[in-house]
Amino acid sequence: MKFTPAKVNLFNLLKLPLAYFGGVRVQSITNKEVIVSIKHAWKNQNPFKSMFWAAQGMAAEMPTGVLVMKAIKDSGRNVSMLVTHQEADFYKKATGKITFSCTGGAEIRAAIDQSIETGEGQKVVLVSEGTNTDGIIVSKFQFHWSLRVKN
Q1: What pTM did the predictor assign?
Q2: How many angstroms separate the CA atoms of 136 and 138, rounded?
Q3: What is the CATH number of the domain that holds 71?
Q4: Which of 54, 59, 76, 116 is the most exposed place for a label (fewest CB within 10 A)?
Q5: Where are the beta strands (DSSP E) in the chain?
Q6: Which DSSP letter does residue 106 get?
């Protein structure tokens, strides 16, 4: 599969319907960065009229996962991927359109190369920052990915 926003969004509809119907949409994909958005709506809000933390978590994890999947595809190798740890900080109520971005493409590719060289699993920590339409950071997530080349 070529990694385009339209194809990943279709994949989400078919394989990750909770994210798709929650409003998570991939906006752009490069080797270095993926940008994803989610709009605050009744279906993803908490009782305090802002976006539920778990909806933000789905949107925050998406750019990290797409970057990992793209790097794996580009490597031409069979690589296992797993989130082993996650942390989050919340700074402001998430309302309106929130955009999450991750710029860890180079780190992912280096971890895959290291796993190819050593045959051992590698860990990479990817940060996904959520900003509102005013450019203010509302939340920041860290996802610890384990990557290991299979023989």
Answers
A1: 0.94
A2: 6
A3: 3.10.129.10
A4: 76
A5: 25-29, 34-39, 79-90, 97-102, 122-131, 137-149
A6: H
